[in-house]
Amino acid sequence: PSVLPAAVMDSIIIQERLVERLLSPRTQAQRSHPGKLKDHEKQYVGFATLPNQVHRKSVKKGFDFTLMVAGESGLGKSTLVNSLFLTDLYKDRKLLNAEERINQTVEIIKHTVDIEEKGVKLKLTIVDTPGFGDAVNNTECWKPITDYIDQQFEQYFRDESGLNRKNIQDNRVHCCLYFISPFGHGLRPVDVEFMKALHEKVNIVPLIAKADCLIPSEIRKLKERIREEIDKFGIKVYQFPECDSDEDEEFKQQDRELKESAPFAVIGSNTVVEAKGQRVRGRLYPWGIVEVENQAHCDFVKLRNMLIRTHMHDLKDVTCDVHYENYRAQCIQQMT
User: Which stretches make up the Septin-type G domain (predicted)?
Assistant: First the structure.
């Protein structure tokens, strides 16, 4: 008699074992009463490890975040960014004299730095806008900024529509910190026009700059005035998402404090001073010390927590799911 190949014999044996298992009394009982399996008889599938798999893959790949800072010169934008990320992003910056500032136009300057903390890598890109709001005539001074944001959307759309979609570089602007002068009585016309020009394209987080120039009661009044004017002019600033019902009470309280503190009144400093026997980052004045990380002095810690620890991923999600999708829909409509 002819001998069957080994692969065919294996297949026959597997089928015979499967038939025996299906016809066994235990298997038939399980099929007729599927909900009566004992706990020790249930098999562990393993999909509960999916979050760990995603975590490992994300940490290995690293994260990227693009932050734009805008506002007139002299409001401490560079100092605040250095304070937020504990790094000097402006080592090679050239300070302009008075004549050069008069002739300066709005520029777009990118600073990229790789930051690592506890094995997690972040590629941080800061988009600076020197020259914004410094001219005598500031008509459409925000145009280079809106053009830059649109260019990043366009580049991402091209890459997404191309053949090689695996290694797309995301240079879209995820958040714009807009610095408001503390010396006015609310929003200036250029502030209103800037935010209205950008609010459909990027997440705007308004900040009151150099809060150490104001006393607490003045800060509260200025915040109320800015909130009223934001509502009055229909400006869409970044909205903090609502907490899930299963979040703990401490997180919900932090979320409430964040919402009540906006717009954040901030102070930046790269100088370490001594206060009450401790070395802290702050500013030394004849009347005392202003501590950057003291929540009784300013909202710097709240801004840092929001931007880095609690809402960075949501800022990226809103950029992708809302602002970019609006741009993408417009492009598709124009193509059809």
Answer: 61-334
